[in-house]
Design goal:
The chain is of the alpha+beta class and 588 residues long. The protein folds into four domains: 242 residues, BirA Bifunctional Protein, domain 2 (2-Layer Sandwich), CATH 3.30.930.10; 106 residues, no CATH class; 62 residues, no CATH class; 147 residues, 2-Layer Sandwich (Threonyl-tRNA Synthetase, Chain A, domain 2), CATH 3.30.980.10. It is 41% helix and 22% strand. It contains 19 helices and 18 strands. The strands form four sheets. Strands 1, 2, 3, 4, 5, 6, 7, 8 and 9 form a nine-stranded mixed β-sheet that branches. Helix 3 packs parallel to helix 4, helix 9 packs across helix 12 and helix 17 packs across helix 18. The longest helix has 35 residues. The chain is globular, with a radius of gyration of 25 Å. The chain starts with a helix and ends with a strand. About 2% of the residues have low confidence. Bound molecules: serine. Serine (SER) binds next to strand 8 and strand 9.
């Protein structure tokens, strides 16, 4: 079954069950500045989940275009996408758990003909905010889910909320057993090994979480379900990955034909990012150095870097866009309608970035020749920084090229130079340069924000008296020193990781403001050596209003939203000096 047929079956099924089919909202939210893109089908419906009357009634269904930016760095594996389509159905104070579960089961087993033994479900295990969801579990038993196929999990797995506050509730997730061997005796739906793939999520939205973390009951009970179309498509087609479906395959095949160097993950990144970029541009997005424009710019630039990795002529990009639009236009006629705009925006951005790459590469070659003549084998940090600052050449590309020529790169003080330069440029209020910085050095910037999160997490997990004693960032890892009187236990390390990743997943905003030093200190901002700062300082805060989780004096740069950081993992914890411990961590 093709994706478009699955979409149509889904909508028809819910129409038959008295749902009104509503159109997909544009990817760029109309009246909601709190998110960059629509991230879920429920997002445009929030007012109605809170009790406002929807003009189409109390039963709705749609397909919604979504972009989730926190998954950018996961793309390249077999299932992550930044753009995806979510099929959804809603009850706005109408039916609840029993009927929702019965309909989901009927659609999956009858319409989509999934054998019942392939289905596993999870339900909420219960805690102080909400009881164990035996209603959902019983509803599953009643429709015929097999014994042993129901699992109970806590809030981490079976509770859904978009962001930090808002309508939320326990959910029941439906998994498909791919038939792959279990990864071990503990393998179960929550496991990430790939045996079980989540295909549908039914949220029973009857709570509201406020800024203080309190839950109250909503005026009405709602159901909000979401089924990822790309996933259900590859599952039903018995394919290994989303990239093997007709949504991506023609483009992947074309890339295979054009490439001179083989890389499966680069092909996937090109195909995925190009699709996202086309969808965003089609809905009115344009590349820039700010917010959603910046996300789009990153998508396009990352795609171009991977085209380069595959050694595909960038002049082929226009044809690739045409092929892609032809591949998808049946599902998204707007792509065909906006073909010229999509092409010209992407090609213009390509030209800009290609120039940066070309100039930088020329300069790099000069540096490499000079070094070789001098009999040296290392690019020093000043040269690395100069390539970055003057030519906008990202350090990770310098490193790639250096490796190809057997040269080493010393990046040990890169961060320091970066900060010094930033300080100077701020003093000279050279806004243009700042704009340039914002578009490169992505990895270091992410690490930089991750150090703030780790600093905040240490205070919660280990001790409120933990403070930063030093840090060092390269494109490959971060090092963070803090005062502490003991070796961290495994449990502490795990909790730190969990907390930092939770904040990353919540995609919290990162805000900067300039204030007097005394004012900053009074406001409780964290700071390592207060006397080293000038009278006017910049303070970075992470979190939502009313729930700021980190506030630090800092020169930046930082990501705009924590979701950009990627996954945070502690690699090592060791002694640094007396009373000071050191954590080495990476983001992936
Ligand atoms: N809102 C839920 C999700 O995004 C279900 O639609 O998964």
């Amino acid at each position: 079954m093709k994706a478009i047929d699955i979409r149509n079956k889904y909508l028809k099924f819910f129409e038959k069950h008295n749902h009104k089919i509503i159109p997909s909202a544009p990817l760029i939210p109309e009246n909601d500045s709190s998110v960059l893109f629509n991230t879920a089908g429920m997002q445009p419906l929030v007012p109605y989940l809170l009790g406002e009357k929807h003009p189409e009634g109390t039963r709705l269904a749609d397909y919604q275009k979504c972009v989730r930016t926190n998954d950018i760095d996961e793309v390249g594996d077999n299932r992550h996408c930044t753009y995806f389509e979510m099929l959804g159905n809603w009850s706005l104070g109408d039916y609840f758990k029993d009927e929702s579960i019965a309909m989901s089961f009927e659609l999956l087993t009858k319409e989509l003909e999934i054998p019942v033994e392939k289905l596993f479900v999870t339900v909420f295990a219960g805690d102080e905010d909400c009881p164990r969801d035996e209603v959902a579990a019983n509803a599953w038993k009643k429709v015929g889910i097999l014994d042993g196929h129901i699992y109970y999990y806590g809030k981490d797995d079976n509770w859904w909320i978009a962001g930090e506050t808002g309508p939320c509730g326990p959910d029941t997730e439906i998994f498909y057993d791919t038939g792959k061997p279990a990864c071990g005796p503990d393998c179960q739906p929550s496991c990430d090994c790939g045996k079980y793939v989540e295909i549908w999520n039914n949220v029973f939205m009857e709570f509201f979480k406020d800024e203080n973390g309190h839950y109250s009951k909503l005026k009405q009970h709602n159901v909000d379900t979401g089924m990822g179309l790309e996933r259900i498509t590859f599952i039903l087609q018995g394919k290994e990955t989303v990239f093997d479906t007709e949504l991506f395959a023609p483009v992947i095949k074309q890339l295979e034909k054009m490439q001179k160097v083989d890389s499966i993950s680069s092909r996937r990144i090109v195909a995925e990012h190009l699709r996202s970029s086309m969808m965003i541009i089609s809905d009115g997005g344009r590349p820039s150095n700010l917010d959603r424009g910046y996300v789009l710019r990153r998508l396009i630039r990352r795609m171009i870097r991977h085209l380069n990795k595959l050694e595909i002529d960038l002049n082929e990009l226009g044809n690739l866009v045409d092929l892609y639009i032809d591949t998808l236009k049946e599902m998204y006629p707007e792509l065909d309608k906006n073909r010229d705009t999509i092409k010209s925006v992407i090609l213009e951005e390509k030209d800009k970035f290609a120039k940066t790459l070309e100039k930088g590469e020329r300069e790099f070659n000069k540096v490499a020749d000079r070094l070789k003549q001098e009999g040296k084998d290392t690019i020093d940090v000043k040269t690395l920084f100069n390539l970055y600052e003057t030519y906008g050449f990202p350090p990770e590309i310098t490193k790639d090229l250096a490796a190809e020529q057997d040269l080493k790169v010393d990046d040990s003080d890169f961060e320091k130079l970066f900060k010094e330069h930033q300080e100077k440029s701020r003093m000279g209020s050279d806004q243009k340069f700042k704009g340039g910085l914002a578009s490169s050095g992505e990895i270091e910037t992410k690490y930089h924000t991750a150090t703030h999160l780790l600093n905040a997490a240490l205070k919660i997990v280990v001790s409120p008296d933990c403070h930063q004693q030093g840090s060092n960032i390269t494109a490959d890892r971060m090092r963070f020193d803090f005062n502490c009187d003991h070796k961290l236990t495994d449990e502490e390390k795990q909790k730190l990781e969990e907390l930092v990743n939770k904040w990353i997943e919540e995609d919290l905003p990162v805000e900067v403001e300039t204030m007097k030093k005394e004012e900053a200190v009074k406001s409780g901002a964290e700071c390592m050596f207060i006397e080293k700062y000038p009278d006017l300082v910049t303070v970075y805060s992470i979190g939502n209003k009313g729930n700021i989780i980190s506030k630090e004096l800092c020169g930046g740069p930082h990501v705009k939203h924590t979701g950009e950081i990627g996954h945070f993992t502690i690699k090592k914890e060791e002694s640094s000096s007396a009373g000071v411990r050191r954590i080495k961590a990476v983001i992936e």
